[in-house]
Specification:
Blueprint lengths: L15 E4 L3 H10 L4 E6 L3 E5 L7 E4 L19 E5 L2 H13 L6 E4 L3 E7 L5 E7 L22 H6 L2
Parallel strand pairs: 1-4, 5-8
Antiparallel strand pairs: 2-3, 3-4, 6-7, 7-8
């Protein structure tokens, strides 16, 4: 039996790479709706996008998926890619952009620890846009255990901050 392993404190997810059916459509979505910058493009087959000048947070490719169908909702695979905003105002501005681009929400929730918006990209890949509340404000029970919730998010109040 192998001993248990714990990932190091500094571990973080560096990027997500998605198979897409139409590279130009996906680039337009992640650039124009989510606000990422195209850092590099490999012809008609792949592109790398980021926020803040990083080499890439998101890879897109059509190597095995050009023109492919959307996966069924009950298919296995990626549930969503989450984009963490620095504060509530930044999330509100991102939400304003989603509304202005007429991208429908799949859902929204106040999780106690965070506020989140859920939508899908052109290929049906799930996206979460969220911000974390300060850790001191996270809901905890009497024993100090984290108590995440799935409550209604005040969308009008969020948009008012934009």
């Amino acid at each position: 039996m192998t001993p248990p392993y714990t990932a190091p404190q500094g571990l973080r997810i560096g990027h997500v790479h998605l198979k897409v059916s139409d590279l130009d459509l996906s680039i337009a979505f992640y650039r124009d709706v989510i606000g990422l910058t195209v850092m590099q493009r490999y012809g008609t087959q792949a592109a790398f996008l980021s926020a803040g000048g990083y080499h890439h947070h998101l890879g897109l490719n059509t190597w095995d998926s050009l023109g492919g169908p959307r996966p069924a909702r009950n298919a296995v695979g990626l549930y969503h890619t989450a984009f963490l905003y620095p504060d509530r105002v930044a999330l509100a501005r991102a939400f304003r952009r989603v509304v202005d681009c007429r991208v429908p929400l799949d859902g929204a929730a106040d999780h106690g620890v965070s506020e989140a918006l859920y939508l899908s990209d052109p290929d049906g890949n799930g996206i979460e846009l969220y911000h974390d509340r300060p850790e001191a404000d996270w809901p905890r029970d009497a024993a100090g255990q984290l108590q995440m919730v799935n409550s209604r998010l005040d969308l009008d109040g969020l948009l008012a901050l934009a």
